[in-house]
Amino acid sequence: MPRPFTPKVVTASALIEGDVIYLTADDTWSRDLSRAEIITDEAHAQLRLLHAERQANELVGAYLADVAPGAGGPQPTHFREDFRRRGPSNYPHGKQEAV
């Protein structure tokens, strides 16, 4: 029996800067997870992922990441995604310092 589909966001890394980016409902990319489009339909998720993968001039490594809807937007359900949204951990400055 297949597992039920859980909410997802499309995420990737920006090609030039390397920052984690998320696909928004209006087809733009944001570095803020709270602006990401929460996808609840498996077929729609596959279409959005294909849309992202065609943007090789802007990003690399697009994939679907599990999230849970929250009051402030999508929240990661896996520690890897929580870690990715904070940025590199080998610098004492940047996004991870503010969290």
TrEMBL record:
InterPro entries: DUF2849
Annotated region (Disordered), positions in chain: 70-99
Protein name: DUF2849 domain-containing protein
